[in-house]
């Protein structure tokens, strides 16, 4: 029976991890550019004897990022940008370059396009984008070309994780890759739009209820086993 307890404990740990992910999805249902996450459950089999009997243990350490596009909402903001199709904006942070779908940018005092957190937006050559002094009526073409007064001065870069590369969630709406991000040539940028979170709140709440019920069922089993062991110990010590 100890094996059943160990298996249940690993299952409970996995369910708790999934509950945290689901709760984070719900909390970010209205966060611009947020990508929902899921938990990857894997089965680990351990041999118990030479007869081929095994113990199955759950492993829920992996996470899967849902890259489905969210709804594009028109804001009219001159520096509000959204990507149609695959790809991410590339921003420069103190910890290295990060990928993001959150397209809220503002020009700094020096004219650099930056996120609300003060991270610089990078162009197709991975260099900061600087809006010329005195520029008015800045327009962003579908291919990311920036122009002011009819004169082009830069092009916003759209990048993605390399083929078979791993996309790792960092914090907020940013991601890193295990290799240099690759340019996406067929992406379409929409000026004056923002991409909403791709979280389906109804689905996430339903999933939270399912996970909670599964966790309670496992906890009920552990409580019964604890009581059974206590009763056995009490009976043997009388």
TrEMBL record:
Keywords of this entry: Bacterial flagellum, Cell projection, Cilium, Flagellum
Protein name (database record): Flagellar basal-body rod protein FlgF
UniProt similarity note: Belongs to the flagella basal body rod proteins family.
Flagellar basal body rod protein N-terminal domain mapped to chain residues: 15-35
Domain Flagellar basal-body/hook protein C-terminal: 190-233
One matching Pfam family: Flg_bbr_C
Organism: Paracoccus sediminis
Boundaries of every Flagellar hook protein FlgE/F/G-like D1 domain copy: 82-148
Main localization category: other
Record-level GO BP terms: bacterial-type flagellum-dependent swarming motility
Any GO CC annotation of this UniProt entry: bacterial-type flagellum basal body, rod
């Amino acid at each position: 029976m100890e094996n059943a307890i160990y298996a249940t404990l690993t299952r409970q740990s996995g369910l708790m991890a999934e509950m945290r992910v689901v709760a984070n999805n719900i909390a970010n249902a209205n966060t611009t550019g947020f990508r929902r996450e899921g938990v990857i459950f894997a089965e680990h089999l351990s041999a118990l004897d030479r007869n081929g009997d095994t113990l199955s243990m759950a492993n829920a350490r992996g996470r899967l990022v849902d890259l489905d596009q969210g709804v594009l909402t028109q804001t009219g903001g001159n520096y509000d940008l959204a990507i149609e199709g695959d790809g991410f904006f590339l921003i420069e942070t103190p910890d290295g370059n990060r990928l993001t779908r959150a397209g809220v940018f503002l020009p700094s005092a020096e004219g650099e396009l930056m996120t609300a957190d003060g991270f610089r937006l990078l162009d197709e050559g991975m260099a900061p984008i600087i809006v010329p002094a005195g520029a008015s009526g800045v327009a962003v073409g579908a291919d990311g070309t920036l122009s002011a007064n009819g004169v082009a001065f830069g092009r916003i870069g759209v990048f993605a994780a390399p083929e078979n590369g791993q996309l790792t969630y960092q914090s907020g709406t940013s991601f890193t890759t295990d290799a240099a991000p690759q340019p996406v040539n067929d992406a379409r940028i929409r000026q004056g739009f923002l991409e909403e979170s791709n979280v389906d709140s109804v689905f996430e709440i339903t999933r939270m209820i399912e996970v909670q019920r599964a966790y309670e069922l496992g906890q009920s089993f552990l409580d019964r086993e604890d009581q059974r062991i206590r009763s056995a110990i009490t009976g043997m010590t009388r």
